[in-house]
Design brief:
Blueprint: E1 42-45, E2 53-58, E3 66-70, E4 75-78, E5 86-89, E6 97-102, E7 110-114, E8 129-132, E9 140-141, E10 150-155, E11 163-167, E12 179-183, E13 191-194, E14 200-207, E15 215-221, E16 223-225, E17 228-230, E18 237-241, E19 249-250, E20 268-272, E21 280-284, E22 287-291, E23 295-299, E24 303-306, E25 314-317, E26 329-332, E27 335-341, E28 346-348, E29 367-373, E30 376-384, E31 387-391, E32 399-401, E33 409-414, E34 421-426, E35 430-435, E36 444-445, E37 450-451, E38 461-462, E39 469-474, E40 478-483, E41 489-491, E42 533-535, E43 543-546, E44 549-553, E45 561-565, E46 599-604, E47 612-616, E48 621-624, E49 632-633, E50 646-652, E51 660-666, E52 671-679, E53 687-688, E54 699-704, E55 712-716, E56 719-723, E57 731-733, E58 742-747, E59 754-758, E60 762-766, H1 770-774, H2 777-781, E61 784-786, E62 792-794, E63 810-811, E64 818-824, E65 829-836, E66 842-850, E67 853-859, E68 881-889, E69 892-902, H3 910-944, H4 955-983, H5 991-1015
Parallel strand pairs: 62-69
Antiparallel strand pairs: 1-60, 2-3, 3-4, 4-5, 6-7, 7-8, 8-9, 10-11, 11-12, 12-13, 14-15, 15-18, 16-17, 18-19, 20-21, 21-24, 22-23, 24-25, 26-27, 27-28, 29-30, 30-31, 31-32, 33-34, 34-35, 35-37, 36-63, 38-39, 39-40, 40-41, 42-43, 43-44, 44-45, 46-47, 47-48, 48-49, 50-51, 51-52, 52-53, 54-55, ...
Helix pairs in contact: 3-4, 3-5, 4-5
């Protein structure tokens, strides 16, 4: 091998003594959310389902610009007809949106009404209305906070300060802050112009496009309770104003013979034909014997048409699928006979008399809104539980947008594969498995996610002994066991030895089930919509599952044994909703809740098999210490427990025998307080650990850190939180997170990542939570602190895909390298890192300017030159092994030892890898030296051409300089090319590569020697 150049820049490092200096203060440190923002969560999607979307606001003068409202994922904006979307409403006080509207003259004015207008058991709530005057760049909350759910907002076409808001009010209880509101000063003040009672809100409002003083408003009486839903009553009705809301005339239930139905009605939707506003349509809910399969046995109302601005009406048809959820007609602005109808996407071409349900639209079937372009009726946009569909053939076929990460997760789990996979169920979109990372440079794509089970997806658990058997769950404990290698599936739902009727009904299928001719009238074993089950931590073949009874299986669900009914056994028909006892005319009765009471939470001690904990949706927490043979009700021992709370989760400590947590909420009783308890004696005594958690967050899940028993992670309806002291204090985790519903979370037991399942923005991962595990107020009082470092893998990412355009979602891979987290007490602090090998020889250096609080930097596991640079391009990967990272932050010097591991797909012998790395170092040095020489010669040529300090030489010398510059540039290019080619394959050089290396080293020496001789006589 030729001798190395005398310009070779050797890698050097000096060993400094390990010291750790704190700078305590007299005041207790306060750790804030802002202090933790340096720990950034990454979004991995998925965007396969991209829903649910509930409303759209299109700029009619430029239909490429529109806003999308998500039920629980904020508001998104496009300016290029949906090629790209940006979230514009994601950091406000809520994630749930009911309506978005843009002013058509002053398109910079946009309003958002928060709290979706659906009435599901999973519907979230909002905190009023927001206004933007800069096209969604910034938002101001304009009040109406207790409206909770906004049905519709309309603006005066000539004066954007005149706004009407249909406020539905609380879903789960009566409240006075509901009705139709009007502002004339852009939201500074509000006047309620239409009110019925504390149970009746405004669900829809429409303005006559030819006369803005003519308004139609739909009032809606409804209430949901833990045990059911009541969706109508005397408060519901259709109203009209001709004086801008000053006075109103009731068009329904007023003794009028105008063609509209009489008696109690439910939800009403309004649409006005803009080409001739005398024509309007309404959908009116009325029926008998609603069943929990979301339909009436007999529909009694439906679609009505008026041709005289609501004075008289004609009944068109009874088509009004699942009115509680949508009940929203939409008339084509250019064709009064074309009516689109939701919840089941359908259209009519005869004014609502008959409807067609297109079969080839290939989008989700549960729909929320349809927009028709007023300039082109072929251009239709459909919003549904599965995202955004764009049609150019009048709604028969759709371009489906798959780049919006709006998946609504309920539960999440992980396996022990490498990289590990993430499992979870989504609202109305089944259960899915996807990777925590890929070896692909493009990141995590939709195609990396696979569906395992349909319906509403909930908990999905893997038997991690082999990472092959998966249990997935759909609504009402629809439990399935999968073999993920073969794709085989087995239905293992317990409790139905005779099968059951296919429909989920609130009323018995036949009047007399004792009649011998009605022997097949049995309903399914009653279970919660989000039914609980667990794999025993002591035996992977043992499962526990909860319906109204607790079940146990020791053969992975092939057979089950009942351990008894653990609910109160209350007959929900003995309970009232809106002070009304149930009869067959209660509208939308119990929609989504066919069974109550049921089990909602299960856990087993990590330390003692058969110590079981169970919670219910009627407010009970029970404990068994003998594998379910007997149970003790411990609810009364929980301080401040509300009556009939919903036990959302029970979590057994992974660290301390006897410790268990209960996360509950009571918003289904219109109580939004926080409820969280801990017991250290298997449930005999309890204490609240709500601590200083911000009020009214509605707790959903708590997890104790597997490494530090004092560290807790909390998921709530509004945000995720962290505690370092067992729940005495809580700090919200943001770090790139939008405002989200954190429905579930888990810490990966091997990789130490926080995996967060949000109900609206998909999965987020906070890689390496060491800093959260180790953080204390004492560290916060210190000048600086360096946290421990997890092992890092040298992944060779590779681009695998062809060009895609912009309509694609790419989930983020983890940081590529070793993650260094550190604390800094001050802003703009220079911090240096040196990475030493096991012999304490420096291999890399980095510099960072720290901000106050947590900071994160990533070493790419590659060599650098002294001073932190990468020479001519990035350096080669270091050898796998043990390394030491030294941090220097002012007077603080700290070190952490960690492992660098080879890419898990590689199995090269250590000697081969070592020789390969040594060769790369030599080639990198060669490339760097030639690059430095080439740059020096380029500068000299520039001076010859009058750039900078002019250089005057003879023609012959100039010719020699230019020749050297050309040749050195060529050698530099070849050296870089050789380095890149060799880097892509671990192993010895090919014979040509070896010859090239010798040639380039020799040529470099020649060029250096010639330049040394030539430059000696120049005034450089």
């Amino acid at each position: 091998m030729a001798a190395m150049s005398h310009r070779f820049l050797a890698l050097v490092g000096s060993v400094l003594a390990l010291t750790f200096l704190n700078a305590p203060t007299d005041l207790a440190a306060q750790i804030s959310t802002e202090d933790l923002n340096g720990l950034r969560h990454r979004s991995i999607g998925p965007a396969n389902m991209s829903g649910r979307l509930v409303d759209i606001a299109v700029v009619e003068a430029d239909t490429r610009v529109y806003y999308l409202a998500s039920a629980t994922g904020g508001v998104w904006k496009t300016t290029d007809n949906g090629v790209r979307f940006e979230p514009v409403f994601e950091s406000e006080g809520t994630h749930s949106v009911g309506d978005v509207v843009v002013h058509q003259r002053d398109t910079s004015v946009v309003w958002v009404g928060t709290g979706e207008r659906a009435n599901r058991q999973s519907s979230s709530w909002g905190d009023g209305v927001y206004k933007s005057t800069d096209g969604g760049e910034t938002w101001t909350n304009m009040g109406l906070a207790e409206s909770h759910h906004i049905g519709r907002i309309v603006m005066h076409p000539d004066d954007s300060d005149i706004v009407y808001v249909a406020a539905m009010g609380h879903l789960w209880g009566p409240n006075p802050d509901r009705g139709l509101y009007k502002t004339t000063d852009g939201g500074e003040t509000w006047e309620r112009v239409l009110f019925v009672d504390p149970l009746t809100g405004a669900v829809d409002v429409a303005m006559d496009p030819s006369d803005p003083d003519v308004l139609y408003a739909a009032m809606y009486q409804r209430q949901r309770r833990p045990w059911g839903f009541h969706g109508g009553g005397p408060g519901s009705g259709l109203f009209k104003s001709t004086d801008g809301g000053e006075s109103w005339t009731r068009l329904t239930n007023a003794g009028l013979d105008n063609g509209l139905p009489t008696g109690d009605i439910g939800r009403i939707g309004i649409t006005i034909y803009r080409s001739d506003p005398r024509i309007l349509y309404v959908s009116v809910e009325q029926g008998e014997r609603f069943n929990a399969s979301t339909a009436y046995e007999q529909r009694l109302a439906g679609i009505y048409r008026s041709e005289d601005r609501g004075e008289s009406w004609t009944y068109q048809s009874d088509w009004n699928p699942r009115p509680m959820y949508a009940s929203q007609p939409m008339v084509d602005p250019n064709d009064d006979q074309r009516i689109y109808m939701l919840n089941s996407y359908s259209y009519s071409d005869d004014g609502g008399v008959t409807f067609t349900v297109p079969r080839e639209h290939r989008t989700h079937g549960d729909d929320r809104f349809v927009w028709v372009n007023p300039h082109d009726s072929n251009h239709v946009i459909k919003l549904d539980d599965g995202g955004l569909g764009i049609s150019y053939d009048r709604g028969d076929h759709f371009l489906y947008h798959t780049a919006l990460p709006l998946s609504q997760y309920y539960r999440v789990s992980v396996d022990m594969a490498h990289p590990y996979n993430i499992y979870g169920g989504l609202q109305d979109n089944g259960s899915w498995r996807g990777p925590s990372q890929t070896y692909r440079a493009e990141g995590i794509l939709n195609e990396d996610w696979n569906k395992w089970g349909g319906g509403d997806g909930f908990l999905a658990l893997v038997d991690t002994t082999e990472n092959r058997i998966l249990y997935s769950e759909s609504q009402y404990l629809g439990l399935t066991r999968w073999d993920m290698e073969t794709g085989e599936a087995k239905d293992i739902r317990p409790g139905d030895p005779e099968g059951h009727i296919s429909a989920r009904r609130n009323w018995t299928t036949w009047p007399d089930l004792d009649d011998p001719f009605q022997r097949l009238g049995n309903a399914m074993e009653p279970a919660n919509w989000d039914g609980p089950y667990i794999i025993s931590p002591h035996d992977s073949n043992t499962l526990y599952a909860g319906t109204a009874r607790l079940w146990k299986s020791v053969d992975r669900g092939d057979t089950w044994t009942s351990l008894g009914d653990l609910t109160t056994g209350t007959d929900r028909r003995s309970l009232v909703i809106m002070d009304q006892a149930v009869d067959s005319f209660v509208l939308s009765l119990d929609d989504g809740i066919p069974y109550w009471p049921t089990l909602t939470a299960l856990a087993e001690s990590e330390f003692v098999a058969g110590v079981l904990f169970a919670g219910t949706d009627d407010g009970l927490v029970q404990v068994s210490v003998n594998d379910g043979a007997t149970w003790t009700d411990v609810t009364a021992a929980m301080p401040g427990v509300p009556e009939m709370m919903w036990v959302n989760q029970i979590h057994a400590s992974p660290n301390v025998d006897g410790r268990v947590y209960v996360a509950a909420n009571n918003y289904r009783n219109d109580d939004y307080d926080n409820y969280l308890w801990r017991s250290d004696d298997n449930g005999r005594s309890w204490r609240s650990i709500v601590g200083d958690l911000p009020p009214e967050r509605a707790v959903r899940v708590v997890r104790e850190d597997p490494r530090n028993q004092n560290v807790l992670y909390l998921g709530t309806e509004i945000g995720a939180f962290w505690s370092w002291n067992g729940g005495q204090n809580w700090v919200e985790l943001r770090g790139g997170l939008p405002t989200v519903a954190a429905n579930d979370l888990v810490i990966h037991p091997r990789d130490n990542d926080l995996v967060l399942a949000t109900h609206g923005r998909g999965i987020y991962i906070l890689d390496q939570v060491n800093a959260l595990q180790e953080m204390t107020p004492q560290i916060a009082r210190s000048s600086a602190h360096f946290f421990s470092v997890e092992a890092a893998e040298q992944i060779r990412y590779r681009s695998e895909k062809a060009h895609t355009g912009n309509m694609i979602f790419e989930g983020e891979n983890p940081p590529a390298g070793a993650i260094f987290d550190f604390w800094s007490s001050s802003e703009d602090r220079p911090v240096d890192f040196a990475i030493l090998d096991a012999d304490r020889v420096a291999v890399a250096e980095m510099s960072h300017v720290a901000g106050r609080g947590m900071n994160r930097v990533v070493w790419d596991l590659r060599h650098t030159w002294e001073g932190g640079g990468n020479g001519a391009g990035r350096g080669p990967l270091v050898l796998p092994g043990t390394y030491i990272a030294r941090m220097i932050a002012g007077d603080v010097v700290a070190e952490q030892t960690f492992e660098v591991r080879e890419d898990s797909r590689f199995d090269d012998a250590p000697t081969v890898r070592a020789a390969y790395t040594e060769t790369l170092l030599e080639l990198w040095a060669l490339s760097t030296v030639t690059s430095v020489l080439a740059e020096e010669l380029r500068d000299v040529v520039g001076r010859l051409e009058g750039r900078g300090d002019a250089l005057s030489v003879t023609d012959q010398v100039e010719l020699e300089i230019r020749d050297l510059a050309r040749e050195t540039g060529e050698v530099s290019n070849r050296a870089r090319g050789l380095y890149g080619a060799v880097e892509d394959w671990v192993g010895p050089l090919t014979s040509d590569q070896a010859d090239q290396k010798v040639f380039l080293e020799e040529m470099l020496e020649t060029l250096e020697s010639e330049w040394d001789a030539l430059s000696a006589g120049l005034a450089l």
